[in-house]
Amino acid sequence: MSEQATRSTPDVIADLADADAEYREIDERIGEYGEETVEEVADAHGRATDLMARYEERATGTGRENFRKFVEFKGKFASLVEDLPEDLPAYDAFDAAGDRFDKNRLNERDFEGAREDLEPAAEVAGLLEDRREALSQYRGLRRDVERAVSAVENEIADRERLLELGDADLDAPVEEVRDPIESYNDAVSDAFDDFRREASARDLLDFVETTHDYPLVAFERPPENLRRYVGDREAGTEPIPDLLKYARYSNSKLDHYVDDPAALKRAVATNETYLERLDADPLRIEWPPRPAADLRWRVKELVSVVARFAPEEVVADLRDVQSVVRDEERFERLRTAAEADEQLSDAERRKVESGAVEEELAELRERKEKLDAALAEYPER
């Protein structure tokens, strides 16, 4: 478990409050100077430190070239200071640094001293970066609170679902829903096995490709090189089990069955896993089933898809499932009972019966209220 996940609600909110206070304090200091003024100080400080960095080695020491660079540096730095307004915050810092360079020779200690002189200006100039960092910290901590809200909402939903399952009627006749679903699942599995075994690979993959228009029937789309091969080659008229068998032959043996053994190997052998896994699972209905509204749409799509390859009796089984979903209120009661039977452990059932889940739910809702209040108090920036 992450450190963030284990932190308490008061800690997360307190961190956000501290970050908000720090940001506002820095922003107020900038406001006292004025945004443009601080930017002017930052610009002047940047130019001054850049000059010193560029000239420190070349303007110190002895020699004609060093002296020439010293004169050049001295003039540039003096001009920089002279161009600054005297009411600029930390002007005295720039002036002191300029005085330090107003001599006939410079050494490394002069530059070190000038940097110390410029520290008040660096502090003012640094307010902009300090505010950026404080804002980044604030935004990160606010996201932490948002994530905490999301996490507690999930926990609330889990507890509410536990209570719903705990109240389920375990003696409800769930077979009214289970039996037609099981009958359909068995029938569609058999029908798809027959289709896979008997239909040409071309027809089967064309069928799978058409299901892409039905988002609730989640077949994985066939690899493009495989589709091209079975669509263009004579071998595509063979069923998939035969193609898989051919792909395991040696090239010399395969030469008796197909025109281009290497092409079959490239298309079929490289997609063997996909072909082996191609089964009726996307056509089966889950147990326990989805909510009535979701299942109704899924069954509607399945009717259109299954009718493309399966006998009419399989579609009839699917329509039996469709009829069960029509009485939504009864279906949901039976579905909840089925989920309780499948999903609720003995320990969870005892927890519901003891009232512990309701206590946890109350605590979670209180925690969410505090987190929501914190997000309202500390807005996005």
State the low-pLDDT regions, or none.
Answer: 1-5
Percent strand: under 5%
What is the general shape?
elongated
Q: Summarize the amount of helix as a percent range.
A: over 70%
Q: Write down the Rg.
A: 38 Å
Instruction: Give the count of structural domains.
Output: 2
Average pLDDT taken over every residue = 90
- Which structural category fits the helices and strands? mainly alpha
Q: Care to count the β-strands?
A: 0
Sequence of secondary-structure elements? HHHHHHHHHHHHHHHHHHH
- How far is the first residue's CA from the last residue's CA? 29 Å
The number of helical runs is 19
Largest sheet: none
Topology:
Elements lengths: L2 H4 L2 H25 L1 H21 L8 H19 L8 H10 L7 H10 L1 H48 L8 H24 L2 H10 L13 H9 L7 H8 L3 H4 L6 H8 L3 H6 L14 H15 L5 H15 L1 H16 L2 H9 L1 H22 L4
Architecture overview:
This protein has 381 residues and is mainly alpha-helical. The protein folds into two domains: 3-132, Four Helix Bundle (Hemerythrin (Met), subunit A); 175-341, no CATH class. The protein has helices at residues 3-6, 9-33, 35-55, 64-82, 91-100, 108-117, 119-166, 175-198, 201-210, 224-232, 240-247, 251-254, 261-268, 272-277, 292-306, 312-326, 328-343, 346-354, 356-377. Helix 7 (119-166) packs antiparallel against helix 19. The longest helix is centred in the middle third of the chain and has 48 residues, at 119-166.
How would you concisely characterize the structure shown here?
The protein is mainly alpha-helical and 381 residues long. The chain is built from 19 helices and no strands.
